[in-house]
Amino acid sequence: MAVPTVLPHMDAVQAALEAAELTVYLGGAPTQSDWVPPDKYVVLYPEPGQAVRESLADARTDFTTTFQITCVGGSMERALWAADTARAALSAPLAVDGRATWRPEDLGGPPVQRDDDTTPPSWFVPVQYRLMSIPA
Fold this sequence. Notes:
21% of the residues lie in helices and 36% in strands. The chain is of the alpha+beta class. The chain has a single domain, classed as 2-Layer Sandwich (STM4215-like), CATH 3.30.2000.10. Strands 1, 2, 3, 4, 5, 6, 7 and 8 form an eight-stranded mixed sheet that branches. It starts with 5 loop residues before the first helix and ends with a strand.
């Protein structure tokens, strides 16, 4: 059995979010000066996760990871809409080849915040999730 990796799991998260018609950026929004942000989008911040022992035999085939989705909008309502849309998109187990996944666990996040460093100002709310999988 192969040691599980994080990228197929994050690809599944991104696919679920995009299927819900969210624009998804990885690790940050674009920074070029001519970029015009959409009215709402999400930024996916993955972490490397852990290959976890399935038994005392030390076979590290189970996997757990957390990730953050920062939901951004041109208004507080648009940021919350993006958070609700992401939550709905992640409410079912994700399709990861060769793996059986639990539904992503919503760990919540802080209140919506206004970002006055953008022009025009935007609103954002980070929401964290935990994802676990085992060999299928």
